[in-house]
Amino acid sequence: MPSRRRTLLKVIILGDSGVGKTSLMNQYVNKKFSNQYKATIGADFLTKEVQFEDRLFTLQIWDTAGQERFQSLGVAFYRGADCCVLVYDVNSVKSFDSLNNWREEFLIQASPSDPENFPFVLIGNKVDVDGGNSRVVSEKKAKAWCASKGNIPYFETSAKEGTNVEEAFQCIAKNALKSGEEEELYLPDTIDVGTSNQQRSSGCEC
After folding, report:
1. Residue 181 φ/ψ, nearest 5 degrees
2. Is residue 50 part of a domain?
3. Using an 8 Å Cβ cutoff, are 119 and 179 in contact?
4. Number of domains observed in the structure of the chain
5. Dihedral angle computed from the Cα positions of residues 125, 141, 113 and 76, in that order, rounded to the nearest 10 degrees
6. What is the pLDDT of residues 115-130, one digit of tens each?
7. The whole model's pTM is what?
8. Cα–Cα separations (whole angstroms), residue 34 to 24, 29, 45, 87
9. Angle CA(185)–CA(190)–CA(191) in degrees, nearest 5?
10. I want to staple 82 with a disulfide (CB 3.0 to 4.6 A). Which of 78, 165, 180, 192 is the partner?
11. φ and ψ of 60, to 5 deg
12. CATH code for position 88
């Protein structure tokens, strides 16, 4: 059998409380939606195995509390992230206006080696609410913000109905893969000392 190449990719989801971060993650990983989610306390994560071409990798998706008192989770939480997903509610101007703060907070805490080119993805969630009639942030405004930040990919989703969720996370996975290639783990059929050292030094023990 050929050696399998497997990569662990860490994805952080940030945004104000109530924008649907937990719902998006659960819709993508479990294909489920619930109105009963309680506010996330601190942080939680789900994993999903994804295959691109001959590559098998695990997305480790971290969901964060949107309340400001939990923003001090700090370096350990942000460290090693391969992609950051910023989420806002298209029916809430406040959640959109908070995006700059979330982005800056991430760059400060994560301290990526190349902050100018670190992959972000923006999601405008809850497009299903009131048939779109209560929407207050336009697609044009969101895309302009993305353009001002280096052409961040943008998706409009409904976690409730599953609209565009799969497409958004496929883009997230691809962007994470680009930045996470240096942390690839090789899992050959026989383990030798060199491979074990490589695994220990890969920085993937998240």
Report:
1. -65, -30
2. yes
3. yes
4. 1
5. -30
6. 999 999 999 999 999 9
7. 0.80
8. 11, 13, 17, 18
9. 55
10. 180
11. -110, 105
12. 3.40.50.300
